[in-house]
Amino acid sequence: MPVAPEVFRQAVASLTSSRPRAEIELTEVGPPKRLAPWAHALAAEANGPAGELATARLVLLYDPEGQEAWAGVLRLVVYLRAELDPELATDPLLPAVGWSWLTDALEDSGASWTALGGTVTLTSSARFGDIAGPARSHDLELRGSWTATDAELAPHAAAFHELMASAAGLPPEGVSMLGGWSGTAHRD
Protein backbone atom coordinates (compact mmCIF):
# COMPACT_ATOMS: atom_id res chain seq x y z
CA MET A 1 0.00 0.00 0.00
CA PRO A 2 1.42 3.41 -0.91
CA VAL A 3 2.25 5.96 1.77
CA ALA A 4 -0.64 8.32 2.47
CA PRO A 5 -0.17 11.89 1.23
CA GLU A 6 1.00 14.44 3.81
CA VAL A 7 -2.24 16.45 3.58
CA PHE A 8 -4.27 13.35 4.42
CA ARG A 9 -1.95 12.34 7.29
CA GLN A 10 -2.21 15.86 8.76
CA ALA A 11 -5.99 15.82 8.38
CA VAL A 12 -6.28 12.46 10.18
CA ALA A 13 -3.94 13.63 12.96
CA SER A 14 -5.99 16.79 13.41
CA LEU A 15 -9.30 14.89 13.34
CA THR A 16 -8.16 12.39 15.97
CA SER A 17 -6.49 14.98 18.23
CA SER A 18 -9.82 16.20 19.62
CA ARG A 19 -11.01 14.12 22.58
CA PRO A 20 -14.74 13.64 23.17
CA ARG A 21 -16.43 14.15 26.52
CA ALA A 22 -16.48 11.18 28.89
CA GLU A 23 -20.00 10.03 27.92
CA ILE A 24 -18.98 9.45 24.29
CA GLU A 25 -17.07 6.31 23.36
CA LEU A 26 -15.00 6.83 20.21
CA THR A 27 -13.14 4.15 18.23
CA GLU A 28 -11.40 3.92 14.87
CA VAL A 29 -13.11 1.60 12.40
CA GLY A 30 -12.45 0.44 8.87
CA PRO A 31 -13.38 3.12 6.32
CA PRO A 32 -15.28 2.55 3.08
CA LYS A 33 -12.88 1.66 0.28
CA ARG A 34 -14.47 2.95 -2.92
CA LEU A 35 -15.57 6.50 -2.14
CA ALA A 36 -12.15 8.16 -2.38
CA PRO A 37 -8.48 7.19 -2.80
CA TRP A 38 -7.90 7.80 0.93
CA ALA A 39 -10.32 7.41 3.83
CA HIS A 40 -10.37 7.27 7.63
CA ALA A 41 -13.37 6.44 9.83
CA LEU A 42 -14.46 6.82 13.45
CA ALA A 43 -17.41 5.24 15.26
CA ALA A 44 -19.06 6.79 18.29
CA GLU A 45 -21.62 5.71 20.87
CA ALA A 46 -23.28 7.66 23.67
CA ASN A 47 -26.03 6.93 26.17
CA GLY A 48 -28.19 9.80 27.30
CA PRO A 49 -29.43 10.43 30.84
CA ALA A 50 -32.75 8.68 30.14
CA GLY A 51 -31.04 5.70 28.46
CA GLU A 52 -31.32 6.98 24.88
CA LEU A 53 -28.65 5.46 22.65
CA ALA A 54 -26.98 7.43 19.88
CA THR A 55 -24.51 5.80 17.50
CA ALA A 56 -22.63 7.40 14.63
CA ARG A 57 -19.83 7.14 12.12
CA LEU A 58 -17.69 9.96 10.84
CA VAL A 59 -15.76 9.28 7.65
CA LEU A 60 -12.99 11.47 6.27
CA LEU A 61 -12.53 11.16 2.51
CA TYR A 62 -9.53 12.57 0.66
CA ASP A 63 -9.30 12.82 -3.11
CA PRO A 64 -6.23 14.85 -4.18
CA GLU A 65 -7.94 15.60 -7.50
CA GLY A 66 -11.15 16.66 -5.77
CA GLN A 67 -14.65 15.84 -6.88
CA GLU A 68 -16.95 18.40 -8.46
CA ALA A 69 -19.77 17.94 -5.93
CA TRP A 70 -17.33 18.34 -3.04
CA ALA A 71 -15.93 21.74 -4.02
CA GLY A 72 -12.66 20.65 -2.41
CA VAL A 73 -10.47 17.63 -1.61
CA LEU A 74 -11.41 16.76 2.02
CA ARG A 75 -14.98 15.54 2.52
CA LEU A 76 -16.53 14.53 5.85
CA VAL A 77 -19.51 12.20 5.95
CA VAL A 78 -21.61 11.50 9.03
CA TYR A 79 -24.24 8.84 9.65
CA LEU A 80 -26.03 9.08 12.99
CA ARG A 81 -28.84 7.04 14.53
CA ALA A 82 -30.54 8.12 17.75
CA GLU A 83 -33.28 6.38 19.71
CA LEU A 84 -36.31 8.58 20.34
CA ASP A 85 -38.97 8.82 22.99
CA PRO A 86 -42.35 7.85 21.40
CA GLU A 87 -43.86 11.28 22.13
CA LEU A 88 -40.92 13.11 20.56
CA ALA A 89 -41.01 10.86 17.48
CA THR A 90 -44.32 12.36 16.33
CA ASP A 91 -43.17 16.00 16.47
CA PRO A 92 -43.41 17.42 12.92
CA LEU A 93 -40.48 19.76 13.63
CA LEU A 94 -38.14 16.91 14.60
CA PRO A 95 -36.38 16.58 11.20
CA ALA A 96 -35.47 20.28 11.25
CA VAL A 97 -34.34 19.99 14.88
CA GLY A 98 -32.18 16.97 14.03
CA TRP A 99 -30.58 18.85 11.13
CA SER A 100 -29.93 21.84 13.40
CA TRP A 101 -27.92 19.57 15.71
CA LEU A 102 -25.40 19.24 12.87
CA THR A 103 -25.46 22.82 11.58
CA ASP A 104 -25.30 24.33 15.08
CA ALA A 105 -22.42 22.02 16.03
CA LEU A 106 -20.45 22.99 12.91
CA GLU A 107 -21.06 26.70 13.48
CA ASP A 108 -20.33 26.58 17.22
CA SER A 109 -17.09 24.63 16.72
CA GLY A 110 -15.59 27.21 14.38
CA ALA A 111 -15.13 24.58 11.66
CA SER A 112 -14.40 25.89 8.18
CA TRP A 113 -16.68 24.14 5.68
CA THR A 114 -18.68 24.36 2.45
CA ALA A 115 -21.07 22.23 0.37
CA LEU A 116 -23.12 20.91 3.31
CA GLY A 117 -26.02 18.62 2.48
CA GLY A 118 -27.90 15.69 3.90
CA THR A 119 -31.12 14.08 5.08
CA VAL A 120 -32.95 13.38 8.32
CA THR A 121 -35.17 10.30 8.40
CA LEU A 122 -37.57 9.24 11.14
CA THR A 123 -38.39 5.55 11.50
CA SER A 124 -40.87 3.66 13.66
CA SER A 125 -40.58 -0.09 14.08
CA ALA A 126 -42.92 -2.70 15.55
CA ARG A 127 -41.49 -6.08 16.57
CA PHE A 128 -43.46 -9.32 16.29
CA GLY A 129 -42.81 -12.90 17.30
CA ASP A 130 -39.54 -13.99 18.87
CA ILE A 131 -37.52 -10.84 18.18
CA ALA A 132 -35.78 -9.34 21.19
CA GLY A 133 -36.22 -5.69 22.04
CA PRO A 134 -39.06 -3.34 22.81
CA ALA A 135 -42.42 -3.90 21.07
CA ARG A 136 -42.05 -0.49 19.39
CA SER A 137 -39.04 1.71 18.74
CA HIS A 138 -38.51 5.09 17.12
CA ASP A 139 -35.27 6.39 15.63
CA LEU A 140 -33.88 9.48 13.98
CA GLU A 141 -31.28 8.91 11.28
CA LEU A 142 -29.14 11.79 10.07
CA ARG A 143 -26.92 11.53 7.02
CA GLY A 144 -24.83 14.53 6.18
CA SER A 145 -21.67 15.49 4.36
CA TRP A 146 -19.62 18.64 3.97
CA THR A 147 -16.26 19.71 2.62
CA ALA A 148 -13.56 20.98 4.95
CA THR A 149 -11.90 24.04 3.45
CA ASP A 150 -8.56 23.22 5.10
CA ALA A 151 -6.81 20.27 6.78
CA GLU A 152 -7.41 21.62 10.33
CA LEU A 153 -10.08 19.10 11.31
CA ALA A 154 -10.06 19.36 15.13
CA PRO A 155 -13.07 21.75 14.97
CA HIS A 156 -14.91 19.22 12.77
CA ALA A 157 -14.21 16.50 15.35
CA ALA A 158 -15.52 18.82 18.09
CA ALA A 159 -18.67 19.37 16.00
CA PHE A 160 -19.09 15.59 15.64
CA HIS A 161 -18.78 15.17 19.41
CA GLU A 162 -21.37 17.91 19.98
CA LEU A 163 -23.71 16.30 17.44
CA MET A 164 -23.43 13.03 19.40
CA ALA A 165 -24.16 14.80 22.69
CA SER A 166 -27.25 16.50 21.23
CA ALA A 167 -28.56 13.27 19.72
CA ALA A 168 -28.11 11.39 23.01
CA GLY A 169 -29.81 14.15 25.00
CA LEU A 170 -26.71 14.92 27.06
CA PRO A 171 -26.69 18.23 28.91
CA PRO A 172 -24.05 20.81 27.91
CA GLU A 173 -20.62 20.13 29.41
CA GLY A 174 -20.35 21.47 32.95
CA VAL A 175 -24.12 21.24 33.53
CA SER A 176 -25.39 18.55 35.88
CA MET A 177 -28.78 16.89 35.57
CA LEU A 178 -30.92 17.11 38.68
CA GLY A 179 -32.33 13.69 39.48
CA GLY A 180 -35.15 12.46 41.62
CA TRP A 181 -37.38 15.53 41.43
CA SER A 182 -41.01 14.61 40.72
CA GLY A 183 -42.44 18.11 40.44
CA THR A 184 -44.50 17.82 43.61
CA ALA A 185 -43.81 19.44 46.94
CA HIS A 186 -43.42 17.36 50.07
CA ARG A 187 -44.68 18.65 53.38
CA ASP A 188 -43.94 17.18 56.78
Kindly report the spatial arrangement of strands forming the biggest sheet.
1-2-3-4-6-5
What is the residue-mean pLDDT, rounded to a whole number? 90
- Domain count: the total is 1
Radius of gyration: 19 Å
Helix content: 25-40%
The stretches of 5 or more residues where confidence is low (pLDDT under 50) are 180-188
* Number of DSSP E strands: 6
What separation lies between the terminal Cα atoms? 74 Å
Protein name: DUF3000 domain-containing protein
InterPro entries: DUF3000
Organism: Saccharopolyspora elongata
Pfam family, one: DUF3000
Describe the structure.
- This protein has 188 residues and is α+β, with helices and mostly antiparallel strands.
- It has one domain.
- 25% of the residues lie in helices and 37% in strands.
- It contains 4 helices and 6 strands.
- Strands 1-2-3-4-6-5 form a 6-stranded antiparallel β-sheet.
- α3 packs antiparallel against α4.
- The termini are far apart.
Question: Which descriptors apply to this entry?
Answer:
188 residues, DUF3000, 25% helix, 4 helices, globular, alpha+beta, DUF3000 domain-containing protein, 37% strand
Layout of strands and helices, then pairs:
Blueprint: H1 6-17, E1 24-29, E2 38-47, E3 53-67, E4 72-83, H2 86-89, H3 94-109, E5 113-126, E6 136-148, H4 154-168
Antiparallel strand pairs: 1-2, 2-3, 3-4, 4-6, 5-6
Structure, briefly:
This protein is of the alpha+beta class and 188 residues long. Helix content is 25%, strand content 37%.
